[in-house]
Structures are given as structure tokens and as C-alpha cells.
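Researcher: I've got a protein sequence and the SMILES for 2-acetamido-2-deoxy-beta-D-glucopyranose. Could you write out the 3D structure of the bound complex as C-alpha cells? I'd like something to compare against our soaking experiments later this week.
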Amino acid sequence: MTNMLIVMFGMIISCYILIGISEARLTIGFYDKTCPDAESIVGGFVRDATEFNPQVPAFLLRLHFHDCFVQGCDGSILIDNGPISEKEAPAHQGLRGFDVIEDAKAQLEFVCPGVVSCADIVAIAARDAVAFSFGPIYKVETGRRDGFVSNKTLADKMPDFRDSIQLLKRKFFEKGLNDKDLVVLSDLVIMYSW
Ligand SMILES: *[C@@H]1O[C@H](CO)[C@@H](O)[C@H](O)[C@H]1NC(C)=O
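Model: Sure. Here is the predicted complex with 2-acetamido-2-deoxy-beta-D-glucopyranose in place.
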């Protein structure tokens, strides 16, 4: 009985530790100490690219959405893994804006090597893209780790413009998104899916 209690208590404690870690991982200003200019550097590249091509904000927001929909926001959409790469999946065709992310990453590697994840760069760039497009300004939590898996079969559940509304609703619901999110994001899904 006592042993049982100790085991249960141990489980509860380890769950708390796990929850604590997973909650602590993402924070506003994760790079404030380790790379204080990280967000402004990314913002600078987004602004410059947008001045050059006004479509860039749409590319970056869509890139973020596609990255997050498959295995979470882990930067896996950026991985070049040959023909099996996630980015080769039919659902990801027409994605653009990779160059903005890569330019920002190169500069960040120069300023603070090995600190800022690609997944965070994608998330920050999307936030700035929305802000530069007179959309809502939101704070973005950072501290994502980059994933190492890139497999195009994982993108099979991406929403597709040929999907029925019921199927789209289900795909969004499985990701914790609701009908309103579907309507808001559908412009991107439908307009840029070819
Ligand atoms: C990609 O994912 C599929 C489905 O899970 C799996 O069958 C396949 O072996 C994976 N390919 C690689 C190279 O990991």
C-alpha cells in the first residue's frame, strides 16, 4: 500500500515536472538574454523583403501555417531531405518565402551562432508579416526547438482546397482550431493552394 502511494506520488511529481518544463519552454522574449536582437533582425528582413515584394507577408504567414499544421511549429518545412522532404508534399506546393527565413537565419548565425531556432524565425517572421500588413499585432512566444523529421507523407492531412467543408472542419478541429479559424485561414488555404 505504501509502495503504491509512493509510486503514485512519484508519478504525480514527474508529471508536474514535465508540465513545468513544457510550459517553461515557450515564453515571450525567450532570446532577450541570449540573442537580444533576434526579433528585430528577423523583422528587418521581413520589412526589406516586403518593400521589394508586397506579396511577401502572405508567403510568410502561409509558411508558418504549413509548418505548424504538420507535426507542430518545428521548422520541418524548411528541411531539405531530398525527394521525400516534407516540403515536396503536394499540399505544400507553391510555398514561398524560404529565402527570407534563410537570410535571417544566416544573419542570426553570424550574430549569435546556434541560438535561434528556425521554427522561431518562421513564427516571428509571420507575426511581423501580419503587423506590416496592418493586421493585428500580437506577441509571439519563442523557445521552439527545430524538428529533425521531414517526411512528405506527414503532410497528407494538410487542408486542401478540394476538401469538403466537413473534412476541412475536421482537419482544423484535430489541430485545436475552430470554425472561425477555418474561415480566417481559408483565404490562405484556398487562394494559395495551387
Ligand atoms: C515516411 O513516413 C511513412 C509513413 O509514416 C513511412 O512509411 C516511411 O518509411 C517514412 N519514410 C522515411 C524515409 O522515413
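Model: DSSP finds seven helices and two strands in the chain. The mean pLDDT is 84.
Researcher: Great, I'll pass this along to the crystallography team.
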